[in-house]
Amino acid sequence: MNVPAWIFLSDKLVSQVEEGAIKQAANVACLPGIYKHSIALPDMHFGYGFPIGGVAALDAQMGGLSPGGIGFDINCGVRLLRTDLNSGNIKSVIKSLVEEIYNNVPSGLGKGGRVKFSTREISEAIEMGAEWAVEEGYGTEKDLDHLEEKGCMKSANSDKVSFKAIQRGAPQLGSLGAGNHFLEVQKVKEIYRPDIASTFGVSHEDRVCVMIHTGSRGFGHQVCTDYLRILEREFREEVAKLPDRELVYAPAGTNEFDDYFAAMSCAANFAWCNRQIITHWVRESMTKILGVSQEELGINVVYDVAHNIGKLEEYTINGDITKVCVHRKGATRCLGPGSSGIPKDYLDVGQPVLVPGDMGSASYVLVGTKKAEEETFSSVCHGAGRIMSRHSAVKKFKGEQIKANLESRDIFVRAASWKVLAEEAPEVYKDIDEVISVCEAAGISKTVAKLVPMGVVKG
Length: 459
Description:
Elements: E1 5-7, H1 11-14, H2 19-28, E2 38-45, E3 52-59, E4 64-65, E5 77-86, H3 87-90, H4 94-104, H5 119-128, H6 130-135, H7 141-144, H8 163-169, E6 182-191, H9 194-200, E7 207-214, H10 217-234, H11 236-240, E8 250-251, H12 255-290, H13 294-297, E9 300-306, E10 308-317, E11 320-329, E12 332-333, E13 352-355, E14 363-368, H14 370-375, E15 379-380, H15 390-396, H16 399-407, E16 412-415, H17 418-423, H18 432-442, E17 445-458
Parallel strand pairs: 1-2, 16-17
Antiparallel strand pairs: 2-3, 3-11, 4-8, 5-7, 5-9, 6-7, 6-17, 10-11, 12-15, 13-14, 14-17
């Protein structure tokens, strides 16, 4: 190990972490050019190369970028929309609303979007990100102000993406996908820091919000697959020195580094564009079911965060400002007050952090801190974290029973299959309240508000 591995856990969570995930955190600490420590957050679990919930910062000149530290679903992330409605305004139509959203936003494994985009349009979208969607009529310029990177990594270059990736992405732009991806109609349950909640627009208990969780679909998966093959072929000597071949990386200063970063940026932009299009269809669904205009709904973007991404960022390390390649895999950027990169209207309080739980518990809005900048390269948890495999979940749970249990608690669910409900049963995840408490206690985030589901669309 070149540096220590820092693992953020409570006594309760320690027993739920696989030994393999701990080993992965230690392996990450062996990467060349890594600074300070490898990091595993309280939602950590076993992944490819890095643990999910893993963070590492590698020197931008002597380190590199590891696809295993970003993941296959590049920029799997979350967007939160707030409205001027309270839960009473939609209680009588929640089932109709969820059905309308389900019909408008395609979900499920392999499902494509409502609109079939050409390969030319995809090439434009992956270079422009969410701005492309806005120019095509999906949302407004105002939306872009509240997206991480304003919804576009300028380092994107569509020439560095394979035609196969474009082919996979073309039919899937504007779709939710499967697995843990979801769209929830939520209400604010508790407010912990009223002033910050007010700044974010979630200042009242019972306020209706919508959370969108999806990523770059098959496009991002293909980008990751393509570059893993390239890197394993081109850097065999470097791979041989690693404790795990899944940590293969593109060394800084090489063409492969530049190419992978450009392609990864394209996948990140695909995901922001995807969530922007879905946002448009959520707005259409709500106006149709409620019979009011978007202006009357007051439906605006609170923020949009990436959970799987690599960034070139600067931090003060040993007294010097140092550029590093920050890997966040199942982790959320959490900038503190005054940081560059935060929307102007949030600058005094810090960046919103969006952390979904499971469909039977809660999601949280947090805010970044300066301590996170010092200790975790401005990173915090991204969710609850699984404690049971999908295979085991399907053996143990029945989708029909999960749906019945949730609806007995007034949580209406619409899913692409019974299987996905079994795979995503609330019991397969850690206690989200405990995960959030660990982050708060460590000082790497502050809790702003708790949101609970009213209606759920699962892929």
